[in-house]
UniProtKB/TrEMBL annotation:
InterPro entries: Homeodomain-like_sf, HTH-type_TetR-like_transc_reg, HTH_TetR, Tet_transcr_reg_TetR-rel_C_sf, TetR_C_Proteobacteria. PANTHER family: HTH-TYPE TRANSCRIPTIONAL REGULATOR BETI, HTH-TYPE TRANSCRIPTIONAL REGULATOR RUTR. It comes from Thermocatellispora tengchongensis. Keywords: DNA-binding, Transcription, Transcription regulation. The keyword Nucleotide-binding does not apply. GO terms for molecular function: DNA-binding transcription factor activity; transcription cis-regulatory region binding. This is AcrR family transcriptional regulator. Residues 37-56 bind DNA.
Amino acid sequence: MSPRKAAVLRGGEQSLREHLIATAERLMAERGASGLTVRVIAREARVADGVLYNHFADKEELLACALRARVNAVERGLGDLPEPGAGTIEAGLRAWIAYGMAMHAGILPVIAGLIGQPEVLARFAEQPASAADWRDRLLAYLTAERDLGRLAPDARVEAAARMIVGVCHESVMSTMVFGPAAPVRRPTDDELDDLVAAVLHGLGA
């Protein structure tokens, strides 16, 4: 271990690899991922540029690891989701939607900065996630509620899940299109209630 590397980590339990990932993840959260270079990360981590290549095959691997860390950090901060059968179906569905919107607001702006780096996103997709995808968990929740008889036996839960995911995407689409300077639109409580009502009761007369 070089003296400079030892100074960076002195007094902590992180490995240098973990330190570099944490630094890149913090920069993604603070500045977005666009323009995030090896030099910028190395300076923030207080190591020489070449040190990164002792722990990662290339910049893309480091950014993919940092993106996974960002996703995990966002989800850890959102709390637990309701279990099937707990409380009212309206309250449970509202909590799932609010969770999804907050998660997308925290993650998609970072991913937007990586659209021009498809290799990073491909590496990210190859990594094992810490938990099942939120959309898959939402679909499992709706399916379980249907099996419990709290939704109609012929409820089209797949379509409902796609509709909810679409609303979550729409809430941050301006950031994806116009960049981090565009404000993330956060739905009001009334809009959340309207979506829950549309999912549960449909649009028919």
